[in-house]
Amino acid sequence: MLYQNSKSSENSNVRIGIIGGGVGGATIALRLSEQGVNVILLEKETSLINGPPMCHLHAGGNLYREISDQQCIDLLKQSISTARLYRDAIDYRPTIVAVPLHDNGHPSDVIARLTTLQQEYAKLVEADPLNQVLGPAEKYFTLYERQDIERLAQLVAPKQPETCDEWMISFAKSADLNQLKFPLILVQEFGINVFRLAAIASLTLEKSESCSLLTNTQVTSVIQNKTSNKWTIEAKCQEEKQTFEVDYLINACGFQTGTIDNMIGLLPKRMVEFKAAYVSYWPSEKNNWPEIIFYGERGTKNGMTQLTPYPNGYFQIHAMTPEVTLFEDGLVSSELESAQPQLDKKYLAKVNNQWDPQVVKTRTAKAIDKVTGFIPSFGNATLGGPPMFGAQQIPGADATLRVANVSFEYDNYARCEIVKASSALPAANTIIKNLVEHGMLFNNSTSDSNTSGSNASDTHTSQTSVSITYSLTELEISQRAEQLALERNFPKDLAGRTNPNFI
Ligand SMILES: Cc1cc2nc3c(=O)[nH]c(=O)nc-3n(C[C@H](O)[C@H](O)[C@H](O)COP(=O)(O)OP(=O)(O)OC[C@H]3O[C@@H](n4cnc5c(N)ncnc54)[C@H](O)[C@@H]3O)c2cc1C
User: Fold this and answer.
1) Which atom of ligand 1 is nearest to the CA of 50?
2) What is the per-residue pLDDT for 4?
3) 56-104 pLDDT, tens digit each
C-alpha cells in the first residue's frame, strides 16, 4: 500500500534532495514526505541506516557525567519525541548506572541532575500525556543501597522482568558488589534497535508517494545555479551517471558531510571519531537484562564500560578505553583547507568492513574482560558476531558535544550534523521551520499537531502526527529487521527487543 499524503498539495511544488540515508537523512525524508514535499533521498550503500551503530536512546544523557544539565535536558526531550516517532524501534528496558570503587566520582554527583530530569519529564507529561514513553515520571529513577541489592539477590530472576526491582535481580545475583560504590541507580533510559529503526524508516519511505528512495547511489558533485538557486546533483548509480535538479539541498552525509561542503567551497570546523562496540554471546544467561553502565574516565584503562543486552544471550559491549572502543588517533579534526577531517587509512578500511579477524577477536576478548571485572560469570562469554562500528561526526571543536542539529550556511542548503540518533527528528523540524520561513513550505505541522512540549516552536519536542510509522505491522518490521541484520552478517537475534511487551 502506498502512503498517500493527506496534508498539503501546495508543498508538492518543491523538490528537495537529501544526500545520505543514515538516521539523519532518513528521518528528514520521512518528515518532509509526510508534509507532501517531493523528496529524493540518495544513499550510496545498499540500505538505509547502515552507518555507525546505535543502541542507547540517551533519554537524559546519563551516560555522560561531563556534559551540561542543559544537554541532558535536550537529550531527554529529543529522546521522547524520537520514541514517539519510532515507537517500535525502542527497547523498553531500563539502565543501571554504577560507579566503580576505583573511580574518583560518587553516585551523589549525578543525583541532583536526575532529580532535575525527573521534574522536566513530569512537565512534559503534564503538557501532553502521550509523552509518557519512559514510564511514570515519579519512577524515572530509583536508588538501590547495598542492603537492597543483597535482598534482591535472594530472589528468583524472572525471564521477563516487569518492575524496577525485578530488573535488578539478575544483576544483584551476578555483580561483584565489592567493586561498586552505592547507591546504584536504575534509570528509565531505554535502548533503540538499529535494525528495527532501519526497517521502519525503509518500509515507511518505500510506501511514501512523495519520496524517491535511491540506494546504491553515490553523489559525486553538487552545483548551484546562481540565478535560480536550484541545485544540480550528479550521482553514480551502478557505474551509470545520473543527474537530478532540486530546489533545496540537504547534506546528511554523516562523517562524510565535509566532502559535500568541499564541493560547495564551505569550510566549517568539525571532528570525526572512529569507534567500535563488540558483540558477545553469554549462553548461560537466558534472562532479560537491563543495560548496565560502569562509569569511568574516558581514554584511560578504566574508561566507562557499557553492557547492552539483546535477546537470547547476546550482549554488545562498549568500553571507552584505547584497547576496546577507542582507537589511537581515531579522533581527527578538519584542517584549514578542507571541511572533511581525514581519518587514517586503517580506520577508513575498517569503516568499509575490512577488519583483521585477529583484531576483532582480541578487542572482543578485552571487552569481555572489562565486563568480567564487574560481573565475574560473564567470563564465560565468547565472540558473538562482527563488531558494530563507525565514524561519527561532531560539528565544531568541542569533542564532548552530544546535542547537535542543523546549520544553514548557504542559500537553499541545510547541513544536518547530529551526534546522537535522537537529534534526527529535531533536525528535521529545524529544516521544516527554515523552509517555512523561506516561503518554500506551507502548512507546517511542527506547530499545529500534537506538540509534545509546552512550547510549540521548540524543535526538540515538536511532534509529527506519526501516522505513517504507526501504519506498519509488527510482522513487516521484524521480518525486515531480521533480513537487514543477516545481510550485515549479524545474528538475527540482534534485530529483536529484550522487552517487546512493555508500555
Ligand atoms: C560505536 C558507536 C556507537 C554509537 N552508539 C550510539 C547510541 O547508542 N545512540 C545514539 O544515539 N548514537 C550512537 N552513535 C552515534 C550514531 O551512530 C550517529 O550519531 C548516527 O548514526 C549519525 O547518523 P547520520 O545520519 O548523521 O550519519 P550516518 O549514519 O553516517 O549516515 C550518513 C549516510 O550518508 C551516506 N553518504 C555519505 N556520503 C555520500 C554520498 N556522497 N552520496 C550518497 N550517500 C552518502 C553514507 O553512506 C551514510 O549512510 C554511535 C556511534 C558509534 C560510532
Assistant:
1) 49
2) 44
3) 999 999 999 989 999 999 999 999 999 999 999 999 999 999 999 999 9
pLDDT for the residue numbered 8: 55
Q: What was the pLDDT predicted at 443?
A: 62
At residue 467, the pLDDT reads 60
CATH at 462:
3.50.50.60
Residue range of the domain that includes 448: 10-52+195-268+399-487
Given this model, what pLDDT does residue 266 score? 96
- Going from the Cα of 420 to the center of ligand 1, the distance in angstroms, rounded, reads 9
Where the chain has pLDDT below 50, the residues are 1-7, 446-456
- Protein residue with least CA distance to atom 33, ligand 1: 20
For residue 127, what is the domain's CATH number? 3.30.9.10
CB contact set of 349 (below 8 Å; sequence gap of 6+): none
Q: Which residue puts its alpha carbon closest to atom 5 of ligand 1?
A: 54
Query: Which atom belonging to ligand 1 lies closest to the Cα atom of 260?
Result: 41
Q: How many domains does the chain have?
A: 2
Determine the distance separating the centroid of ligand 1 and the alpha carbon of 23, expressed in angstroms. Answer: 7
Q: Is there a domain that residue 292 lies in?
A: yes
Q: Is residue 4 part of a domain?
A: no
State residue 11's pLDDT score.
78
Answer yes or no: do 179 and 98 share one domain.
yes
DSSP assigned state of 4:
P
Q: What is the pLDDT of residue 477?
A: 97
CB of residue 25 inside a 6 A radius of ligand 1: yes
| Residue minimizing CA distance to atom 51 of ligand 1 | 52
Residue 203 φ then ψ, to 5°: -60, -40
- The torsion angles phi and psi of 41, rounded to 5 degrees, stand at -110, 120
Cell representation of residue 63? 551516560
- Give how far Cα 160 sits from Cα of 262, 315, 381, 477, 499, Å: 51, 16, 21, 22, 7
Among 369, 391, 413, the domain-final residue is 391
Interval between CA 378 and ligand 1 midpoint (Å): 30
Q: Tell me how far the alpha carbon of residue 33 lies from the centroid of ligand 1, in angstroms.
A: 21
23: cell is 538516521
378 plus 335 within the same structural domain: yes
**Integer Cα distance of 14 and 216 in angstroms:** 24
Distance CA 348, CA 353 (A): 9
If one residue of 28, 231, 253 were mutated to test the ligand 1 pocket, choosing by the most ligand atoms within 8 A of its CB, it would be 253
Is the CB of 415 within 6 Å of ligand 1? no
